[in-house]
Amino acid sequence: MVCFSSGCDCLVQALFIHQNFPGQYRHLAPVIAARPGARVVGLGERENISLPGVTHIRYPEPQGAGDKTHHYLRSMEASIRRAQNVARAMVDLRSKGFRPDIICCHPGWGEGMFLPDIFPRAKLLQYCEFHFTTAGGDVGFNPAHKVELDEAARTRLLNLPQTPALEAMDWGVSPTHFQRGRYPEVFRHKISVVHEGVNSEVATPIGPHHLKLPNGNVIKRGDEVITFVSRNLEPYRGFDVFMRALPEILARRPQAQVVLVGGEARGYGPKPADGRSWRAHLLEELGDKLDLTRLHFTGRIPHPALLALFRISRAHVYLTYPYVLSWSMIEAMGCEALVIGSATPPVQEVIEHGVNGLLVPFYDTAALAETVVEALANPDRYAPIRKAARRTLLERYDLQSICLPQQIKLFDAVLEGRAGDSVILAA
């Protein structure tokens, strides 16, 4: 049973809220908890979370929207139910004597709606991950998909769950300039850019560089390996584009092996019209154009295995809509993988073509195939780019030397009420 003394003389009490806690707070929350006299609580839906010094409280996963809910408002209803569960958990914390001086919250699923009503004196630092619009982002990016009024209206309302939190926040933080730039100026002027950071001592070219594939074969550094990694294999991450480029790549590089990491559940976008996974859909579409003996679908794999794969990769393909940038791309760069990325804003913020990676137009399968074939054929030519990729991690996204210190600096600025004088906009 969790109990807090109302007479506590703690130097700081902090509350971290994230639907998938610890999420982006995995490193910051324990650092704050390690301060003398600190008291730190984390709220989230996941079970069995253990972080040093952090008291973890799980709130119940909310019900979704009802069958009769207007389809524009289904995500909003689910978010309100989640906000209620978070509010009840906070009321319980308050009854046990917990009074946070600062609340760090990811409000994207509604968690931040009622914070000021329960802890009115707490400073509010919101995590501003993505603001939806009907142009310039993920919606409307696919030229083959026309955004009708019904979809545009529904998209605009996707921002409702985070709006109360944005209005109440003392300050906000986004991991990239692209993501910060998605927010209206009325909020943007109070948002700093601080990336979560990648551990350069883990994402490093030094370490295991062999991997056993599902068919029992072992690949190793020096083999002709193409890699593709996404939480789910879906068009938002260019899975369809990559698959359609493979027949040309495999025909021209008969020794190449392709390793695809990711699940088959619905991720950020819709499934194919027939309801199957995108993997099943594209394998049927491409048929005998693909040599399936050289395609290796691993599903999701443990993080150490993923890093080993990056060390092996001769060409790592990372494509994305104008959407949230994956941590995995920077991890691949840290392992000195040659990243062939999409010329879309999230990637272009990190990769300069020909300097620390290669860029191709998102939908240009011919350009993608040509670039991958060239990378496979002449690996030594790209050694300087691989080295520069790791320097990018070390100079801009390193967890311990850059990003975590910036997170701590921003946390303290908001806690002390001086965020307006200490805006951090990472280079």
What keyword list fits this structure?
427 residues; alpha/beta; 2 domains; 15 helices; 17% strand
Question: Could you walk me through the main structural features you see in this protein, from its secondary elements to its overall organization?
Answer:
- This protein has 2 domains: 12-197 and 399-421, Rossmann fold (3-Layer(aba) Sandwich); 210-397, Glycogen Phosphorylase B (Rossmann fold).
- It has a 7-stranded parallel beta sheet with strand order 3-2-1-4-5-6-7. It has a 6-stranded parallel beta sheet with strand order 12-11-10-13-14-15, sandwiched between helices. It has a two-stranded antiparallel ribbon with strand order 8-9.
- It has helices at 28-33, 74-95, 115-118, 149-157, 163-168, 177-181, 185-188, 239-252, 278-286, 303-312, 327-334, 345-348, 365-377, 383-397, 399-415; strands spanning 12-17, 38-44, 54-58, 102-105, 123-127, 171-174, 191-193, 210-212, 218-220, 225-232, 257-263, 295-299, 315-318, 339-342, 358-360.
- The protein is globular.
- It is α/β, with parallel strands linked by helices.
Structural class: alpha/beta
* Annotated CATH homologous superfamily of the largest domain: Glycogen Phosphorylase B
Shape annotation: globular
Order of helical and strand elements = EHEEHEHEHHEHHEEEEHEHEHEHEHEHHH
- CATH architecture assignment name of the largest domain: 3-Layer(aba) Sandwich
Oligomer: single chain
The CATH topology of the largest domain corresponds to Rossmann fold
How would you characterize the largest beta sheet? 7 strands, parallel
Rounded to the nearest angstrom, the radius of gyration is 23 Å
- Cα(first) to Cα(last) distance is 45 Å
Helical proportion, percent range? 25-40%
